[in-house]
Amino acid sequence: MKKSPFLRVGNQRNLLPLITYGKVTESYVNEMIQTVKDLGPYVVITKSIVLPHARPEAGAKELAISVGVLQSPVNFGNHENDPVKYVFGLSALDSHTHLEVMSELIDLLEEDKFYHLLDSAGIAEEIVDYKRFSLHVA
């Protein structure tokens, strides 16, 4: 059986900060993976960007987002937006907050400078400092 692209993304440690810093439970990440298996590549939200998330009751503990850049981009089966290079793992406690965070992220993704920062940032704080998110970066 072919390994899910989402599993490959998760295995590259881009979602682990959400668990490591206590923002979500391991079951939350497992639910992210299962949702992609069940529903397909809907989490690929724009060119090169994947935003995995799950329902809050799956194990979201607080509002957080993890940011990762893949060394080897991954195809999710979204022909318009593959390959995925940037991974933003989202934990939100309700749908209202989820939509607010997505709106802020979409604004950032319209800026070419933000992509350059993603490629060159050494630590997550550099990304947060670029454009103050109203959320905690894991």
Characterize this entry briefly:
InterPro entries: Ascorbate-PTS_EIIA_comp (IPR051351), PTrfase/Anion_transptr (IPR016152), PTS_EIIA_type-2_dom (IPR002178). The chain is α+β, with helices and mostly antiparallel strands and 138 residues long. The protein has helices at 5-11, 16-20, 26-39, 95-109, 112-120, 124-130; strands at residues 44-46, 49-50, 64-74, 84-91.
Low-confidence stretches: 133-138
**Order of strands across the biggest sheet?**
1-2-4-3
- Supply the number of structural domains: 1
Number of strands: 4
Annotated CATH homologous superfamily? Mannitol-specific EII, Chain A
Domain PTS EIIA type-2: 1-134
GO molecular function: kinase activity
Organism: Streptococcus suis
Keywords: Cytoplasm, Kinase, Phosphoprotein, Phosphotransferase system, Sugar transport, Transferase, Transport
What does this structure look like?
Residues 1-134 form the PTS EIIA type-2 domain. GO terms for molecular function: kinase activity. This is Ascorbate-specific PTS system EIIA component. The protein has helices at residues 5-11, 16-20, 26-39, 95-109, 112-120, 124-130; strands at residues 44-46, 49-50, 64-74, 84-91. By secondary structure, the chain is an alpha+beta fold. It has one domain (5-130): 3-Layer(aba) Sandwich (Mannitol-specific EII, Chain A), CATH 3.40.930.10. The chain has a 4-stranded mixed β-sheet.
Write the layout of secondary structure elements.
Layout: H1 5-11, H2 16-20, H3 26-39, E1 44-46, E2 49-50, E3 64-74, E4 84-91, H4 95-109, H5 112-120, H6 124-130
Parallel strand pairs: 2-4
Antiparallel strand pairs: 1-2, 3-4
Subcellular location: Cytoplasm
Domain PTS EIIA type-2: 1-134
InterPro entries: Ascorbate-PTS_EIIA_comp, PTrfase/Anion_transptr, PTS_EIIA_type-2_dom
